[in-house]
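Collaborator request, handled under Task 6.
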Amino acid sequence: MALRRDATARQTRLAVELRRLREVAGLASREAATLLEVNPAQISQIEAGLAGVSEKRLRRLAAHYVCTNEAFVDALVAMATDRTHGWWEQYRGLLPTPFLDLAELEHHATFLREAQFLHIPGLLQTEDYARSVFSYRVPELPYGEIELRVRHRMQRKLILEGPTPTRYDGVVHEAALRIMVGDRATSRAQLTHLLELSEADHITVRVIPFDLEGFGGATSAMAYAGGLVPKLDTVVRDAPQGAAFIDAEDQLDAYRTLFRKVEDVSLGTARSREFIHRLAKEL
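Structure tokens returned to the collaborator:
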């Protein structure tokens, strides 16, 4: 089987989990190769995400690594045998790889949580709002690339539509609601769109108002994607070099706590809708 030139974030995650299992078992890669009767280089390639692994070999490795978490192993098998060629692949070579990795992560997520303080979350943005966000970038993007990014962001919203949409829970600070990223009409349309989305059974939007006392979590912006099992959850944070994918168990626990904290201090869903409705009327 030919080696991949570049591994996606999902393929890399599978590779990382297999390496972690081997290290917990206290085995060297050469020992794992002996157990599978393969060249040690193949183990290195699998653990770098550059080569795939069959269900049979993955289960043999898990057995040798004495991994007794059957649900976790089944989830790894699902990742290893998935042959999805998602809509995001049409953008490969046209947009930065993190855009594609994010779309792939959201597509496979069992649920999504998001906390944002300065912008409306990407999955909840209107086309004009998203265009205003991308138009403000420095260095400036050419018109064609802006339109590519807008189209990609709008296609990401497919996971919130259809007969089996993904559960989405968002917390948005009042600052994000009040900052007019575009003109007044764009902002009004964005708030109206947010209200419409929040009426769906699978979408929750909650607001943190300015006058909340004692709120010190404005640096906790994040997107949290649920995996097939909690060990495969992923947090996405913005970073200078692009989106950062976080998957270490202790860090996941920390972000679960952070999201609970921002959710606990936010307004209830009914009050949040009233809040957004009032802001929209003010524009």
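The cover message to the collaborator said: "DSSP finds twelve helices and six strands in the chain. The beta strands are 111-116, 167-173, 203-208, 222-225, 234-239, 242-246. Please let us know whether this matches your experimental observations."
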